[in-house]
Design brief:
With about 240 residues, the chain is of the alpha/beta class. The chain contains seven helices and five strands, in the order H-H-H-E-H-E-E-E-H-H-H-E.
């Protein structure tokens, strides 16, 4: 998916995808997310909601999600002025409005290892490019200075981004979870997301991302700003 070919194909993609059920689902999920936030802030309906409303600082919001929910989290944060940061765990997005578009808040994206376990059928196993590089950023803004962190977790497959990585022991699990040890996956997910939120939501020093990258060599930085001008080669 080189940049020039992508730009040429994007209008056809945008026209087709707006009719797809996945795009409609994005709108529904984002609406549900906004409804939950409004219900929490109102604090009505149950004693639990009232207690939560008292404890939540609604001026320091963050959104996070995995897979389809990862894209929804970033979209929801982008639409909510009070959102300070968003993280996406191997997330995807289909809404054309999110391509060639800069997210207004700091962003953390943890990708699974697409070199070993591609998320999409026919996805190129090229460390230099991921399909979601075209989302949540301007295509021509290579020198743009913003807090956009995209990382690849080596040896992990898509479902490793869930708690199920600790529970599943069936033969063939590597296709769904990869070969990463559950303890490593837990440490990476909690270490990077909490340090990211500490820095950008709580305003606390956390060493993000240098400290966590030094602690977890399985995590490789991915520079989504360097979109290739020519098609990458399959490995």
């Amino acid at each position: 998916p080189d940049l020039e070919n992508w730009k040429a194909a994007f209008p056809a993609y945008a026209e087709a995808v707006v009719k797809d059920r996945l795009t409609n689902s994005e709108a529904a999920w984002q609406g549900d997310t906004a409804f939950v936030l409004a219900a929490l802030q109102a604090g009505k309906g149950s004693p639990l909601l009232a207690r939560l409303a008292e404890r939540i600082d609604f001026s320091h919001l963050a959104y996070g999600g995995m897979s389809f929910g990862g894209g929804i989290a970033v979209k929801s944060c982008d639409a909510e002025p009070r959102c300070r940061a968003a993280f996406s765990l191997d997330g995807v997005v289909y809404d054309p409005a999110m391509f060639d578009h800069t997210v207004r808040a700091p962003l953390l994206v943890l990708h699974t290892d697409w070199l070993e376990y591609p998320l999409y059928r026919g996805q190129l196993r090229d460390a230099a490019v991921h399909p979601m590089d075209f989302a949540f950023r301007r295509w021509q803004a290579e020198g743009e200075a913003r807090d956009d962190y995209r990382l690849r977790v080596r040896n992990s497959a898509h479902m490793a981004m869930t708690d199920l990585v600790r529970l599943t022991r069936w033969p063939g699990r590597d296709k769904a979870y990869g070969t990463i040890a559950p303890g490593d996956m837990d440490g990476i997910l909690t270490g990077f997301t909490l340090a990211f939120l500490d820095r950008f939501v709580r305003g606390m020093p956390s060493g993000f991302p240098e400290k966590q990258l030094a602690q977890w060599p399985l995590v490789a930085p991915h520079d989504s700003r360097r979109l290739p001008e020519h098609p990458p080669q399959s490995q």
